[in-house]
Structure to design on (82 residues):
């Protein structure tokens, strides 16, 4: 299952070898660009790909990107983003 198929993925579910500030910046840029939606659930920030909106505007693009990056997503961890 890719990250896009999940209802949302906490920041800790991504590359564990990056420091939290790098992930925070990465997610902020993606949110500002309209690629993801973020919402807080308690102390955890969840990221959701805006796949439907992106597919409408750029047909086939998200499927191609997800195929290429399928091995980059790790199982969710306990780390949270600021």
């Amino acid at each position: 299952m890719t990250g896009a198929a999940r209802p949302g993925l906490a920041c800790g579910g991504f590359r564990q070898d990056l420091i939290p500030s790098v992930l925070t910046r990465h997610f902020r840029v993606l949110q500002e660009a309209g690629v993801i939606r973020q919402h807080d659930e308690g102390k955890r920030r969840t990221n959701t790909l805006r796949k439907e909106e992106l597919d409408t505007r750029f047909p086939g693009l998200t499927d191609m990107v997800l195929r290429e990056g399928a091995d980059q997503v790790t199982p969710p961890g306990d780390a949270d983003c600021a």
Q: What stands out?
A: The mean pLDDT is 78. Helices lie at 20-32, 51-57, 61-68. The two ends are 26 Å apart (CA to CA).
